[in-house]
Specification:
Elements (H helix, E strand, L loop, with lengths): L7 E5 L10 E4 L9 E4 L5 E4 L1 H13 L3 H5 L1
Length: 71
């Protein structure tokens, strides 16, 4: 995906194709409130702080997001 230079890759979600799967990066050069970068396969990106990402992970682990995948 273009524009990802300087970002440290953390995870790729899907990875079973060559369609530009969603990815998770850390941008070490970004301000702390925008350091975590999540991209989608449509060329969009969301930037958030490590605290915000930690909250998202905690919600997922607790099952609060399970309804999304069954919808």
């Amino acid at each position: 995906m273009d524009g990802m230079n300087g970002l440290d890759p953390v995870a790729t979600f899907c990875g079973n194709c060559d369609c530009g799967c969603p990815q998770l990066f850390v941008d070490p050069a970004a301000p702390a409130e925008r350091r975590v970068v999540l991209t989608d396969d449509f060329g969009q990106r969301v930037q958030m702080s490590a605290d915000q990402f930690s909250s998202l992970v905690a919600e997922a682990k607790s099952g609060k997001l399970d309804g999304i995948v069954s919808a």
